[in-house]
């Protein structure tokens, strides 16, 4: 008997409807999954087999073929465990249910319980766009799924609970939450401008940069506060709109970095990768392309400390996304686009020792070394930077002043 169940795939940051077809026929016992699955989907055979048995159902000892259509779309991740299991139970006539208008998502444990699944938000979004309002998701992902208004979220904790629901033994579980979009977390006092001593001209320049979304490079000796000043930027940037928050949440959902207690990311991201990062880690990539740091800092701040230490190819790779606000990753099988609308903030010393031009300490670098160090940043890259700020040492009197400066919330409101 043939059974069909609807699920979703993620391509870049967008979802795509996937039809899971399960066919059981007489023959030697076998379990085959076709339709361009990756390793995680192929391994679903053992997870599904154990989950069905441990949920009080019978795994058919027949020839089982599962097709994930369309066959030319790559299927990655464990989100197909639950729809495959449901398809087998429907095909073996152990449950009866009309799931023709229902999207089913979720990773199964061996005991039949459902685990957190990455990429729920874009999959629920495409289901809503296609007019499919009933969506079965793991209970741990119900808050994230409920961010898409107009959908009926059915949170499930285990395969056995879903079987009981299909058999009419329990009422349909439903998750209702509309307050998530209105929730705004308080600003973090750890990054408040008020706690930075002195550097008034730098604070003013950062305020101007935040108001216009300008890219910034700060140049100064070690210990002058460049990193701390950069970390204050998210606290004075304008609050994200609901649309911007959903965009950022999609990126983190697909990357598997969305905190379980934070279904909607409200604070602007601040990413600070080390200068040893790879090209794929910075701009995204991999055999199955995933977002990089520039996409994880979308609508926020990408902070590059020790800017000249980053490889020349890394900095040159940033030129295109700085212009287009999007990064396109091409592979032989196709290309995907990730958003990259970030504010670039770089920090660097004026020379390798850090004290070129410093009035308090003598620079030990020869002029040729200083020139070579500063030439590590190319002209085309510098052309994409709007503001250059000199960050000097802080006077002792200002450093010991107990008075607080202007708070970030006041600066943000201007």
From TrEMBL:
One Pfam family, short name: Mg_chelatase
InterPro entries named in the record: AAA+_ATPase, CHLI-like, MCM_dom, Mg_chelat-rel, Mg_chelatse_chII-like_cat_dom, P-loop_NTPase, Ribosomal_Su5_D2-typ_SF, Ribsml_uS5_D2-typ_fold_subgr
**Keywords annotated in UniProt:** ATP-binding, Nucleotide-binding
Q: Is Transmembrane included in the keywords of this UniProt record?
A: no
Which SUPFAM superfamilies does the annotation name? P-loop containing nucleoside triphosphate hydrolases, Ribosomal protein S5 domain 2-like
Q: Which family does it belong to?
A: Belongs to the Mg-chelatase subunits D/I family. ComM subfamily.
Question: Which SMART domains would you find in this protein's record?
Answer: AAA
User: Lineage from the top down?
Assistant: unclassified sequences, metagenomes, ecological metagenomes
AAA+ ATPase domain segment(s): 212-395
In the record, what terms sit under GO molecular function?
Answer: ATP binding; DNA binding
Q: Which organism is it from?
A: marine sediment metagenome
Query: What name goes with this protein?
Result: AAA+ ATPase domain-containing protein
